[in-house]
From TrEMBL:
Gene3D superfamilies: P-loop containing nucleotide triphosphate hydrolases. The keyword Nucleotide-binding applies. Residues 2-235 form the ABC transporter domain. Keywords: Amino-acid transport, ATP-binding, Nucleotide-binding, Transport. This is ABC transporter related-protein. The keyword Disulfide bond does not apply. One of its GO terms (molecular function) is ATP binding. GO terms for biological process: L-amino acid transport.
Length: 236
């Protein structure tokens, strides 16, 4: 579904990604874990066309999308839930969801998507008229995921969905991520600092350190890996 080959990204003099390669197979949840500043967000931004790759290649369904413009990439069926959620604080829940479908014109299909989002997140339906800025962090994360689903993606990228969210809601959100993956067959690339949770729901994982992939394996194997355990799983 997605192949990233030897990706290099710099912000001026800061070389953020040093030749990253990774793969997401159709229907899989793949996770990218790593500490603050390792380059996780930059990897997602480069895939979705929000930062420019200096070199390397991004292949989506076998075709190069390297440095294609972000809205064209969305049209191909890729959706990105950014770190910090970035919902439109002054718009209602309903308006935020409608914004997620702005590239689509088929009203019936948009309505179907809205119903699906409400079936996954009943809380959004209850609060559809509420202004998004007044939702809790967890509810805003649900809204950000719901908004991404409104473009009917085949491939979804999630940047730190657990960040700043109450533990109980984090659990719910991760269950919903699995549900979306299973029900809709949407392939997912998940970036997380909460390695425990991320490795629990994914099939394959990559560990990023200072812009380089230092480890990759089946998630179940990474959870047993001593290096991963001591650095990312709290030494358990
Ligand atoms: P975090 O979890 O803190 O977001 P991350 O793993 O997602 O961390 P990135 O945000 O991708 O890491 O950052 C990778 C490196 O690139 C860091 O050294 C960071 O300081 C740098 N960087 C990120 N964005 C910019 C920017 N807009 N301008 C300059 N440097 C940046």
């Amino acid at each position: 579904m997605l192949q990233v080959k030897n990706l290099n990204v710099s912000y001026g003099a800061i070389h953020a990604l040093h030749g990253i390669s990774l793969e997401v197979k159709q229907g899989d949840i793949v996770t990218l874990i790593g500490a603050n500043g390792a380059g996780k967000t930059t990897t997602l931004r480069a895939i979705s066309g929000l930062v420019k790759a200096q070199s390397g290649e991004v292949l989506y369904e076998g075709k190069s999308i390297t440095n294609m413009r972000a809205h064209q990439i969305v049209k191909l069926g890729m959706s990105h839930v950014p770190e910090g959620r970035m919902v439109f604080a002054n718009l209602t829940v309903l308006e935020n969801l409608q914004m997620g479908a702005y590239l689509r014109t088929d009203k019936k299909a948009i309505q179907n998507e809205m119903e699906y989002v409400f079936s996954v997140f009943p809380r959004l339906q209850e609060r559809q008229k509420q202004v998004a800025g007044t939702l809790s962090g967890g509810e805003q994360q649900m809204l950000a995921i719901g908004r991404a689903l409104m473009s009917k993606p085949k491939f979804l990228m999630l940047d730190e969905p657990s960040l700043g969210i109450a533990p109980l809601l984090v659990k719910t959100i991760f269950e919903k991520i699995v549900e979306i993956n299973k029900q809709q067959g949407i392939s997912i690339l998940l970036v997380e600092q909460n390695a425990n949770l991320a490795l629990e729901i994914s099939t394959y994982g990559y560990v990023l350190e200072t812009g380089r992939i230092i480890l990759q394996d089946q998630s179940s194997a990474l959870r047993q890996n001593p290096q991963v355990k001591s650095a990312y799983l709290g030494g358990m």
